[in-house]
Amino acid sequence: MGPSKHKARRAASNPLAGFGRFGASLAVKSLTASGLAIACFLGLTGSAGAQGAVRSVHGDWQIRCDTPPGAQGEQCALIQSVVADDRSNAGLTVIVLKTADQKSKLMRVVAPLGVLLPSGLGLKLDNVDVGRAGFVRCLPNGCVAEVVMDDKLLGQLRTAKTATFIIFETPEEGIGFPLSLNGLAEGYDKLP
After folding, report:
1. How confident is the model at residue 143 (pLDDT cuts 50, 70, 90)?
2. Among 33, 25, 139, which Cα is nearest to 81's?
3. CATH classification at residue 24
4. β-pair type (87-98, 105-111)
5. 58, 55, 99: which is closest to 80 by C-alpha?
6. Taking a C-beta distance cutoff of 8 angstroms, is the pair 137, 47 a contact?
7. Distances (CA, A) of 99 to 83, 86, 148, 182
């Protein structure tokens, strides 16, 4: 069965998030708190890290930056969060970032606790199925999927208008989180 048509809205504060691997690479995380999402973005474990400062806004995306403990420099990520209109506890945060060595591009998505882990995280771009990514870990406030994005996936994200991330609570019930890609290309190009 397909995902249900739950409506989602952008969260008032946009913490960091991630994706998983979809044939190409992606990473997925669950959003329940800004601190968790930022902690995941910075590569921290379950502790809530400092809120990344909003550096700029690009359409529906924000660039947030912070210096992780022990890091030599600041790390920035492109972030957008949405929550389901009919489920205040169901939110999703997507984080796009370049690794510190500039050799890889990551997408992380944070999904709420209670997600069915074996089903992974689904992704559709402009209603075309791109694939699924597996969850790599669960933290106290959500479960994370993460993938290294290749040029093909990045190109698809740049040209698509909407992304729909699908999580499953049961094998039959998917919840689709529509996410605007407005500003993603511009924001990605501005990432340090």
Report:
1. very high
2. 33
3. 2.60.40.1880
4. antiparallel
5. 58
6. no
7. 27, 35, 10, 23
